[in-house]
Amino acid sequence: MPSENETSPVVQTTHGKVRGALLKSPYCSPFYAFDGVPYAQPPVGSLRFKEPREVKPWSGILDCTQPPNFCLQSEKYVGKVKGSEDCLYLNISVKTFRSAKPLPIMVYVHGGAFRRGDNLRQSMGPDYLMTEDVIYIAIGFRLGAFGYLSFSDPSLGIPGNAGLKDIIQALRWIKANAGNFNGDPERVTLFGHSSGSVSVQWLLASPQTEGLFQKAIPMAGYCMELYRLPNLEYRLAKNLGYEGENIDKKVYEFLLKADPNKLAMADVLTPEEKKKGEILDFIPCVEPYATSGAVVLAAPTELLRTSWSNRIPIVLGTCSEDGLYHVMGLKNDGAKVLPAFQEYPERVLPWTLKWHYDSDQKRQVGEQFLDYFCQAHGNQLTLEHADALEKLFTHNLVHSQNRLILSRLAYAKAPTYLYRFAFDSPDFNLYRKRCFLDVNQRGVCHVDELSYLFVMPTTFKLEKSRPEYTAICRMVAMWVSFASTSDPNCAITKPLVNWKPLTQSEPHLLLNIDEELKIIPQPEFSKLKFYDRLYDQADIPLF
Question: Which residue from 136, 99, 131, 101 is spatially nearest to 119, judged by alpha carbons?
Fold first, then answer.
């Protein structure tokens, strides 16, 4: 192992040597960073859309001191693409190479609606985590069509979920190489946010991941079943100029030769679908046929009943006003966005109900949701209902989370810890600050909790007397304690609260993370029964 005072440490991996760099966090904690460690072959040429292949060994020392490529993606608002198809790299941060015992490893899966996002330190730096004895690894994986194209024709060898398979390949590499970085392969925690959290949940349900991680923290993204819009591959090909029939082999051959930038830029959703609230196109799927590498062959609802992951502990939670994300348009440009809410009540439905019903039923049930939360629908809806709509979308997510909780309580033998992030800082909830035109907008938006775990592009150094700094210290200590010991209670929080695993008692008792830490009954719990009734009427099992 490298000596502790090295500024350019070299580590031998299973496939070759890598050189990293000694860095310092904003609060002057030193750590070692290895950016751009390859864990699979570049998925280019004939490997486009295919499941990942083991990385080929390299000779010499690979320089891992610069930001690596990340997955090719469109920049939503400026009509450009960024990134590369060659994107299967890890960014590894190591607190120390010298410790009494190997360090726990935290592996992060980024969010971005399966279309955007990256694993770069420049986007989400692990500097706060590096104040603790831990190893942090962020995975680069394929997104959009590159990661989630799926064909039913077995001869093509593309059943789907290449992006999830990238993550699994990365976890295998991490397990094999943990010891080389002073890490403990038996203390790996997989955590993710938003679509990254949904990926973690699906990997909890997959038999492929048993033994690759021992704990999980899915944050603010849950889905017990996934449904994709039909004929997406054909729609994509037509968008790029394909004029043939909807035959898998021909569509695949066309897309295999397509310009990667055009693949990344293609928009397959119709204007009407967008008005109805569709934001997801290429996403994980239940694979159409079995292969040795299949990730999921049934919905998580079914798989989680008997999953190996019922033996491992998890922490999960959401933000207190998570649904702010969905009313951003209303708040910023209400006159333009409000008509879609008035005309398409199905826009507000949870994904599962939206996928389950036909168009007439969707409208009817959407109106029930609007009447329950807003006491209005159609032209009665006004911009004054924006806060009520935020509550509706927040409850959509909390109910999806609750379905996973019910599954855990029914089938899991290991603890399940629930939190609610409610710290409403005027200037440090960085995602809300970035997204809303009104500088006085308050509330704890989707992604805001990440300001307290990661250094982001707009992060600024806090005075240590500020409550936000205390919140960072507590969040980091609890997350790392869980990664280390399977118990999130740690030295700085034990005098304040005793965070206990969930039990069958209702309402659920959770850790409310605000300026103060408090154990409280789940505030959203009473309205979840409304959802349960509608799922029962639709004959959809909750878990």
Answer: 136
Q: What's the Rg (C-alpha) of the chain?
A: 23
Judged against a pLDDT cut of 70, whether residue 4 lies above it is answered with no
**Cβ count near 260 (within 10 Å):** 16
Classify domain 324-537 by CATH number: 3.40.50.1820
Cα torsion 274, 119, 204, 199 to 10°: value is 10
Q: Which of 488, 477, 478, 476 is nearest to 415 (CA)?
A: 488
> CA 237 to CA 268: how far, in whole Å?
9
The length of the chain in residues reads 543
Is residue 158 within 8 A of residue 151, CB to CB? The reply is: yes
Q: What pLDDT, in 10s, does the model give residues 282-317?
A: 999 999 999 999 999 999 999 999 999 999 999 999
DSSP, collapsed to helix, strand or coil, labels residue 215 as strand
| Joined tokens for residue 521 | 């009954």
For 415-466, where are the alpha helices, taking DSSP H only?
A: 430-435
With the C-alpha atoms ordered 396, 447, 32, 492, is the resulting torsion angle positive or negative?
negative
Q: Which homologous superfamily is 10-312 in?
A: Alpha/Beta hydrolase fold, catalytic domain (3.40.50.1820)
Question: Distance between alpha carbon 136 and the CA centroid of its chain, in Å?
Answer: 16
Do 200 and 190 contact (CB within 8 A), yes or no? yes
| Contact call for residues 178 and 137 (beta carbons, < 8 A) | no
- 159, amino acid identity: P
Contact status, residue 502 vs residue 509, Cβ threshold 8 Å:
yes
